[in-house]
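Risk register update: the risk of archive-format incompatibility is retired. Evidence:
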Amino acid sequence: MSKTYSVKEIYYTLQGEGFHSGRPAVFCRFSGCNLWSGREEDRETAICQFCDTDFWGTDGVNGGKYTAAELTDKIYEVWPEAKEAFIVFTGGEPALQLDEELIQVLKSHHSEIAIETNGTLELPSGIDWICMSPKANTELIVQSGQELKIVYPQEGIDPLNYIEWDFEHLYIQPMDSPKQAENTAAAIEFCKNNPRFKLSLQTHKYLQIP
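Archived output:
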């Protein structure tokens, strides 16, 4: 029996944050995470308590269980061209499911593959763009990639501890919370004081891009 992947949702949009902000992309959100169950009743005891994403279940747009071939077909149903899709695998924690089998099928369409990961799990080979966002009180395995994106301010995380890690781009992103204005001001001040970091904003929320 072929392996299946549990997917919360698949949709075509513009990447809203980080280096690729504004770039058309297919987002494939896998179900599940290793730092929080996704259930509100578990949030207070979770390792990561500030997640702003619904990754529980498979009931989102184009959600379901797919084989590698089926998932590739579904992604190319929403991408406007026949090949070379820019695909962002996210979650939850996509490294729980993304594997070389799926990557190989996608690469047959000359896809460009990105991942947004918490960095606690080993990644398969073949990923073109690794964006790692560390969370406090975790052991980080992924210590190199293209993009380091730190949600700020985050108790237990000092961005300067990561400044020499092997990432091409360093970002500070204000934590989405009731203190949004305060967090944004703090993130701006941090970047001004530490110019190797750039500011990342969740532009899709400001512009109401789904």
